[in-house]
Amino acid sequence: MKEESIEFIKSGGVTAPRGYLASGISCGIKPGKKSDLALVVSQQLADIAGVFTQNKVKAAPVIVSMQRVKKGKARAVVINSGNANACTGSRGIEDAEQMTTVTASFLGCSPDEVCVCSTGRIGVYLPMKKIIRGIEKACKQLNVEGGKDAAEAIMTTDTVPKQAALKVKIEDKEIIIGGMAKGAGMIAPNLATTLGIITTDASLSPEYLNSVLHSCVQETFNRISIDGETSTNDTILVFSNGLAKNTTIGMDSPHKGIFKNALRLVLDRLAREVLEDGEGVTKVVEILVQGAASEKEAELVARSIGNSLLVKCSWNGEDPNWGRILCAIGYSGANVDQNKIDLFYNGFQVVASGVRTETKESLIKKTVKMPMFSLLVDLHIGSGQYRFFTTDISERYVRINKGE
Amino acid sequence: MKEESIEFIKSGGVTAPRGYLASGISCGIKPGKKSDLALVVSQQLADIAGVFTQNKVKAAPVIVSMQRVKKGKARAVVINSGNANACTGSRGIEDAEQMTTVTASFLGCSPDEVCVCSTGRIGVYLPMKKIIRGIEKACKQLNVEGGKDAAEAIMTTDTVPKQAALKVKIEDKEIIIGGMAKGAGMIAPNLATTLGIITTDASLSPEYLNSVLHSCVQETFNRISIDGETSTNDTILVFSNGLAKNTTIGMDSPHKGIFKNALRLVLDRLAREVLEDGEGVTKVVEILVQGAASEKEAELVARSIGNSLLVKCSWNGEDPNWGRILCAIGYSGANVDQNKIDLFYNGFQVVASGVRTETKESLIKKTVKMPMFSLLVDLHIGSGQYRFFTTDISERYVRINKGE
């Protein structure tokens, strides 16, 4: 029998695993903000994998980090908030590279071993003097309990820092996974950038590290939406430095299942925190679509509902507006037969075969008043299913995003 | 030389052309509303064509009218507001058919010659007793100046009735085209249904009538968006009764160009009125995308910008947030090179080759303060272009759509 267990570590973050240091300091990019520059460092060279925005307009730090991640080895990531370094042309690329060069010189490693992320205002050049002084300061303050400082420094309009960590016991070894994220906070003209930095002391084969990150992101961060938009700067990185001294987990390891579960749990917790802390969000809604012609079609339907402005407005008004949901299903592009659609709110059936049921309106209204509820759609066409998380949209969202 | 001219008719609507009667009355579907049932009748059997919602969840009146339009001949359309008769199963179909039967019996024609439209609340059965009494009343009040009453009766949260009419002179004949529409008004749990009824006394071949309606709708109503959602009830119908006694315009007629221009002008005016009267709308924005790999790709980019919640919020805040626009271009799915993108607000270049220009911020801010402005995007990849109209989004939109 495999000896395996998972246990969350209270208030742990990127410095929870062995061999990681972090810091978060203010270099003055964003006046009035407590801190705006974060550094996460592995004390020894780590394997690295990354997932980047699919947006064809990519910020300079994304372009630079994509190249670094391809090499598969890294020591650190340097992150600033308050400026996205996006749409800044060749000067932006030079600035992002300089951030890695300066960090590398203080750490005594190659610039190739340093990744970089930015989040904040688009189209403005980075204040490099401030940033260079900031990197020096951040390097001096690196420490084994710096995870929370780093998580605070990457916040934009997030109201709370987002961290998670857990221990995985595999045979006689204890592996730790830690992580931090920033969410869908936007202030004009910023963007809804998602950043996630994951650290682990597990020993993993590079191939497995890359594969497990992609599949876990697919099942967590890629299934949440506040406004349906992907940013120029979205980045999720994972470092693994092997200090747990476990037998290396590869594509054929008997323990790859538990490691994947653990990594997914960390990413899932961070993704939920991002969603709950979305601008003006009052409700988190789980959408499960089943009975679609394929998983792809189920996804189309789930995203169509989850990104419908009219549906999100009605949830904000605590109105279980099933008509708008059927409408969003109808224009999703998926194959649907309106006379077969069933719809349930938290298990209460609202629509049967495309027509309103006798379920009491008051029962359904009560459900939609909850801060979290689920919506189940059954298309009764095939066996494709998809799960997706979304939120309501409020007047406050519009107010925040109107501009300065 | 062809003798051709076009002239708008002030405050004309569906009864402007020869041989059309209309009325708008209250039958009490929606308490407190001045009127909620409209009737438009051609005194003699007319040719008819229609364009219907692409939504796979179609309201009962859409299903019934689609069948009627296929036969190509009609005498009338009966329309109610306050109830969409959507998601009402087989009883909904029976009710829609009964509306046409009752109308036909008063007009002395076949039910097959009557179309039906509904707009309003989804998932509630029609109050048929009220509607039958209403149809009788509407038939009694039919008159040659009833266009405006009809335009008022189909309103939902529209603040003004929407009508247009014009005269086309072709050789020695005068053709008149009239029309009415209702717009993107929504009150929970209603939907953003677009209805348009066009009448003309032109003599047109059935093939040409169908073809010209589809291409004009493609260039007008299909190029506007407030929230990017298509409803279960969208319908545009055109009647032509031939009373202008012009030489029939067919697919090869020398005058088909001027007729198309005229019809497009009527639809364009109605579509603009719908847009300007959208819920909470403070700005109408024209988006022109050029230099795309194809027209289809240009459309992807235009719709991605025009439906971006973040872009629309920033316009509402009078913030010319070009970073969000580049971001929406990047996730549009179209082939783009971020280093080639140019962007102009009302002719002022804001972005050149993906990077901010030196154009004064104050100049651009002034542009975005206007109630109507244009955005030009040049991708510099190919020769595909597309024109699209959209609006900002306001806190009032969310408030209106929160529910009851």
TrEMBL record, chains A, B:
Protein name per the record: Arginine biosynthesis bifunctional protein ArgJ
Site positions for Cleavage: 192-193
Gene designation: argJ
Site (Involved in the stabilization of negative charge on the oxyanion by the formation of the oxyanion hole): 119-120
CDD domains: OAT (cd02152)
Keywords: Acyltransferase, Amino-acid biosynthesis, Arginine biosynthesis, Autocatalytic cleavage, Cytoplasm, Multifunctional enzyme, Transferase
Function in brief: Catalyzes two activities which are involved in the cyclic version of arginine biosynthesis: the synthesis of N-acetylglutamate from glutamate and acetyl-CoA as the acetyl donor, and of ornithine by transacetylation between N(2)-acetylornithine and glutamate.
Family: Belongs to the ArgJ family.
Pathway this chain belongs to: Amino-acid biosynthesis; L-arginine biosynthesis; N(2)-acetyl-L-ornithine from L-glutamate: step 1/4; Amino-acid biosynthesis; L-arginine biosynthesis; L-ornithine and N-acetyl-L-glutamate from L-glutamate and N(2)-acetyl-L-ornithine (cyclic): step 1/1
Subunit structure: Heterotetramer of two alpha and two beta chains.
Organism: Methylacidiphilum kamchatkense Kam1
